[in-house]
């Protein structure tokens, strides 16, 4: 009986597939690789790798300590490489409008009640609850996929990250 | 007294192989040891019964899914979200040219009930239509019991995130979900979660990879996280997607592990348009005007990402939805 090896990628070791065109345009498939995207990103840059109307999946290079952020809706962080610590805070005064989409950065250190902490490794999914502040940190470069909505800090550079021919 | 619909759901008396036949409008469905036979006023079609039952299983479990579920190049359904088309040759340009294609529309509940009755009768005790080929018995042969538990599985649909209190549960040995043989090397550790009193419902995390490594089904996207209408529907894939999905909206695939090869063809004609090879870390959109079928050599983890907006069916009917998610 064979021993099966499950292949997960990482920032430093990934193999990319691609679109083999028969009668179409490669751009229609918006094909990218989130490890490749994160390998070229600045720390905590939120680069969209998938978009469906107003919704996005962002690839984030987690490296060092992020600013605090807050969103009016739930977001979900899936760690795809490395280890990421997430601190959660119930803010005293920081708020975000209910019609604001995506997360917004919080200036400085918000005051509030500590809610708890999550230490997530590869394959771990964390809830970032609506109207709570969160901050991520990573001792070494890691990768997070964020399920969210297009926001003011979402970076869309499709022509740079996607297969075009 | 038996109503006509009850008679329809009961099917005919069992044939020589022990199986009942069913009808929907002018379509009839019969099976023998090896094949499903579908007939309509202008034509007939035959499918090996194993792929037919695997396709039928998905169509029912996914509630006719988003858009078109092609069982093969001839037979399938189109979901109009309230009513459903059953067709033969509608998306096959040669059948249409020969004018032997046929389509009838049914109320959702009627076609679903008939399909469920047929699946329940035609699946034998040792066959599981959701399982990988080496993890189930044969679909073929004369009638030999049934497998109600397998064909009535409930699709996981979390309302916020699996593992949260009052939401869908996680998977474990104890709950009957051992690690699949092809994922024996997947790390089973959970995230470290510490929370202050009163915040236990909000400070939450789980191992998605552990959860997926314990899936007992293939090609069955299930909702694990919900961001408004954005649904993460990860699934484990092995062998061949039993249906050819014709999109009515943009759908996204994020390959979490291993590799899947997708054959992409025109939704209307079936003419090939592209092959998409996806490896771990790859992201690809499926445009809204294509059909696709996937091949996964080893059991893999795929994140299917859907937009479940209630406004979309009306927008689709009015032709207001884009075929591609971004233009660049």
Based on the structure given, which CATH architecture of the largest domain in chain B is correct? Roll
Helix count of chain A equals: 2
Uncertain residue segments of chain B: none
Under CATH, the topology of the domain at 44-152 in chain A can be stated as Jelly Rolls
CATH domain class of the domain at 44-152 in chain A: Mainly Beta
Count of strand segments of chain A: 12
Provide the residue-averaged pLDDT of chain B. 95
Q: Give the helix level of chain A as a range of percent.
A: under 10%
Count of runs of 4 or more consecutive helical residues of chain B = 7
The coarse overall form of chain B would be globular
Average pLDDT confidence of chain A is: 97
The main β sheet of chain A shows up as: 10 strands, mixed
Order of helices and strands of chain A: EEHEEEEEEEEEEH
* Alpha carbon gyration radius of chain A: 17 Å
Low-confidence stretches of chain A: none
Query: Which fold does the CATH topology of the largest domain in chain B refer to?
Result: Transcriptional Co-activator pc4, Chain A
* Largest interface between protein chains, with number of residues from each side: A-B, 70 and 74 residues
Q: Please report the total strand number of chain B as a whole number.
A: 18
Key descriptive features of the protein:
heterodimer, A: 165 residues, mainly beta, Jelly Rolls, B: 328 residues, alpha+beta, Transcriptional Co-activator pc4, Chain A, 2 domains, 12-stranded antiparallel beta sheet, 4-stranded antiparallel beta sheet, globular
């Amino acid at each position: 009986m064979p021993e099966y090896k499950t292949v997960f990628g990482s920032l430093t070791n990934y193999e990319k597939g691609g679109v083999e065109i028969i009668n179409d345009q490669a751009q229609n498939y918006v094909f990218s690789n989130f490890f490749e995207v994160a390998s070229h990103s600045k720390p905590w840059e939120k680069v969209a790798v998938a978009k469906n109307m107003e919704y996005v999946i962002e690839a984030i290079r987690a490296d060092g300590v992020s600013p605090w952020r807050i969103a009016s809706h739930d977001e979900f962080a899936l760690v795809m490489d490395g280890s990421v610590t997430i601190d959660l805070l119930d803010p005293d005064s920081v708020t975000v409008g209910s019609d604001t989409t995506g997360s917004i950065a919080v200036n400085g250190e918000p005051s509030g009640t500590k809610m708890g902490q999550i230490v997530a490794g590869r394959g771990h999914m964390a809830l970032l609850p609506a109207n709570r502040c969160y901050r991520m940190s990573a001792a070494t470069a890691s990768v997070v996929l964020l399920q969210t909505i297009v926001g003011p800090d979402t970076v869309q550079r499709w022509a740079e990250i996607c297969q075009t021919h | 007294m038996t109503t006509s619909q009850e008679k329809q759901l009961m099917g005919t008396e069992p044939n020589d192989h022990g199986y009942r036949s069913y009808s929907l409008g002018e379509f009839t469905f019969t099976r023998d040891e090896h094949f499903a036979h579908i007939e309509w006023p202008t034509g007939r079609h035959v499918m090996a019964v194993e792929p037919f039952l695997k396709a039928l299983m998905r169509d029912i479990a996914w509630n006719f899914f988003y858009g078109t579920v092609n069982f093969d190049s001839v037979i399938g359904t189109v979901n109009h979200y309230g009513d459903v088309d059953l067709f033969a040759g509608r998306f096959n340009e040669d059948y249409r040219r020969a004018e032997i294609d046929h389509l009838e529309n049914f109320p959702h509940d009627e076609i679903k009930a008939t399909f469920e009755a047929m699946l329940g009768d035609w699946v034998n005790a040792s066959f599981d239509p959701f399982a990988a080929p080496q993890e189930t018995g044969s679909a073929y042969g004369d009638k030999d019991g049934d497998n109600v538990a397998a064909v009535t599985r409930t699709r996981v649909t979390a309302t916020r995130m699996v593992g949260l209190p009052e939401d869908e549960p996680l998977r474990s040995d104890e709950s009957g979900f051992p690690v699949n043989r092809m994922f024996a090397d997947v790390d089973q550790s959970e995230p470290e979660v510490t929370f202050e009193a009163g915040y236990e419902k909000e400070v939450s995390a789980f191992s998605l990879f552990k959860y997926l490594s314990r899936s007992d089904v293939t090609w069955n996207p299930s909702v694990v996280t919900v961001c408004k209408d954005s649904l993460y529907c990860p699934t484990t894939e092995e062998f061949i997607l039993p249906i050819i999905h014709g999109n009515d909206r943009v759908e996204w695939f994020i390959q979490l592990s291993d590799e899947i090869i997708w054959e992409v063809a025109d939704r209307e004609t079936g003419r090939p348009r592209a092959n998409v090879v996806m490896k771990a870390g790859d992201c690809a959109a499926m445009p809204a005007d294509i059909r696709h079928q996937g091949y996964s050599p080893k059991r893999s983890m795929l994140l299917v990402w859907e937009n479940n907006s209630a406004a979309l069916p009306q927008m689709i009917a009015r032709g207001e939805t884009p075929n591609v998610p971004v233009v660049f």
